[in-house]
Design goal:
alpha+beta; Nucleotide Exchange Factor Grpe, Chain A, domain 2; three-stranded antiparallel β-sheet; three-stranded mixed β-sheet; 50% helix; elongated; chaperone; protein homodimerization activity; stress response; cytoplasm
């Protein structure tokens, strides 16, 4: 009787006490890991477990890296379209520079031609002065000497240059041979006499010189 009472009232059976004294959650490191896993997973609406949202974790997107590489490559290498535009710009610039050079050259040629047309009216006067000087009609210190000198100075100032002198090698580009004669003393065709002087205005030949030519035998 005493033993039954002790078992029934005095103390709790070992099995029942063990169940009541069991901790609510397991202890130890493994228990902590299990709790973290349980906390990270929560049941969804359909009963399936889904990962609970936690603090943001910084991740690297492969697409971002590829885009960055493309930007760097584009920055370091010229774009094909830009290269074509640059080449077109250089070509147009060169063509414009050549056009300006041609225009300026043509303008100078036209100016010389216009001056030459005016000067051509003076050439017969210069021819008469040359003949008079050749025959001794323009004596040094004579009344016409100063006038002739001023006239020649003014026509030279506008760019008129005389062509043809005795002893020059014959050049069919600037000389017109009106007579030829053999001469054993010359090695090449040589101007023996100038009948009528030729003239340049700038780079334009206004008139070829009419000359007598000595030819080697």
């Amino acid at each position: 009787m005493t033993e039954d009472t002790a078992n029934g009232e005095g103390r709790v059976p070992e099995d029942e006490g063990a169940e009541q004294s069991a901790p609510a959650s397991p202890a130890g490191p493994d228990a902590t890991a299990d709790q973290a896993a349980d906390a990270a997973s929560v049941p969804g609406e359909d009963g399936a477990f889904v990962e609970a949202e936690g603090p943001d974790v910084e991740t690297t997107d492969p697409m971002d890296e590829e885009l960055q590489d493309l930007i760097e490559k584009t920055r370091n290498e010229p774009v094909e379209g830009d290269s074509e535009h640059l080449a077109d710009l250089k070509r147009v610039t060169a063509e414009y520079a050549n056009y300006r050079k041609r225009t300026e050259a043509n303008r100078e040629i036209e100016r010389q031609r216009a001056v030459g047309d005016v000067v051509k009216g003076i050439l017969p006067v210069l021819d008469d002065l040359d003949r008079a000087e050749k025959h001794g009609d323009l004596a040094e210190g004579g009344p016409l000497t100063a006038i002739v000198a001023k006239l020649r100075t003014n026509v030279e100032r506008i760019g008129l240059v005389k062509v043809g002198a005795v002893g020059d090698a014959f050049d069919p580009q600037v000389h017109e041979a009106i007579f030829q004669k053999p001469n054993p003393e010359v090695q090449v065709d040589t101007v023996a006499d100038v009948v009528e002087s030729g003239y340049y205005i700038g780079e334009t030949l206004l008139r070829a010189a009419k000359v007598v030519v000595d030819k080697p035998e």
